[in-house]
């Protein structure tokens, strides 16, 4: 059976990166061959520049022509391989972008699932109740502040007779202070000039002036 259909291969399938690497290696090999052909053409060109027309020069021309044909063939192969490598690199970039997109989508799914779990634990009614309680407490605090900072009004129901009595008392105090000052003693020292209560006989006025002088 293996002879008819061949044995099943167990070798790993080539990846895109390995295919690109193989193509790049072939391009490098062709570049080496092209460098040799260019060197050979340069040598023929120098020889032809020094030779005269004749059979020998024509033979060198034929060799140079074959080398030029080989160079064009290798250049064509190199261009094809470079295009293949570029196409595979583009496919690789698309593959990487797709992987990154899938990773992003998976991350978004996981995040959405977690957010649903977290928001599911939040009770909107409790939040509204807390907000209402906070508003009530703020209003209560404002009422307390207004009550504490309230100014007390002075009673305005003052009787005219009471006012006249107060004015008369103030007038008597003013007259009493003026009387003390008219005798040469300031009003605030009137009581101090009075002899103490424990002295029976007050001093004579002349001696008081001498002591004061």
From TrEMBL:
<feature type="region of interest" description="Disordered">
    <location>
        <begin position="182"/>
        <end position="213"/>
    </location>
</feature>
<comment type="similarity">
    <text>Belongs to the SNF7 family.</text>
</comment>
<protein>
    <submittedName>
        <fullName>Charged multivesicular body protein-like protein 5</fullName>
    </submittedName>
</protein>
<dbReference type="Pfam" id="PF03357">
    <property type="entry name" value="Snf7"/>
</dbReference>
<keyword id="KW-0175">Coiled coil</keyword>
<dbReference type="GO" id="GO:0032511">
    <property type="term" value="P:late endosome to vacuole transport via multivesicular body sorting pathway"/>
</dbReference>
<dbReference type="GO" id="GO:0006900">
    <property type="term" value="P:vesicle budding from membrane"/>
</dbReference>
<dbReference type="GO" id="GO:0005771">
    <property type="term" value="C:multivesicular body"/>
</dbReference>
<dbReference type="InterPro" id="IPR005024">
    <property type="entry name" value="Snf7_fam"/>
</dbReference>
<feature type="coiled-coil region">
    <location>
        <begin position="20"/>
        <end position="84"/>
    </location>
</feature>
């Amino acid at each position: 059976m293996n002879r008819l259909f061949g044995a099943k291969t167990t070798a790993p399938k080539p990846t895109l990166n390995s295919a690109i690497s193989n193509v790049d290696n072939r391009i490098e090999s062709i570049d080496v061959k092209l460098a040799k052909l260019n060197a050979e053409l340069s040598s023929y060109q120098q020889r032809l520049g020094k030779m005269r027309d004749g059979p020998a020069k024509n033979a060198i021309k034929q060799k140079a022509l074959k080398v030029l044909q080989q160079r064009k063939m290798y250049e064509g192969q190199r261009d094809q391989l470079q295009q293949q490598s570029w196409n595979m690199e583009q496919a690789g970039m698309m593959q990487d972008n797709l992987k990154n997109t899938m990773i992003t989508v998976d991350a978004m799914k996981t995040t959405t699932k977690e957010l649903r779990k977290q928001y599911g634990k939040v009770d909107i009614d409790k939040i509204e109740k807390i907000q209402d309680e906070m508003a009530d407490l703020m209003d209560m605090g404002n009422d307390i502040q207004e009550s504490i900072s309230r100014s007390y009004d002075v009673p305005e129901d003052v009787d005219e007779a009471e006012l006249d009595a107060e004015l008369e008392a103030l007038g008597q105090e003013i007259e009493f202070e003026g009387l003390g000052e008219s005798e040469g003693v300031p009003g605030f020292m009137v009581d101090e000039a009075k002899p103490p209560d424990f002295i029976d006989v007050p001093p004579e006025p002349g001696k008081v002036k001498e002591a004061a002088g």
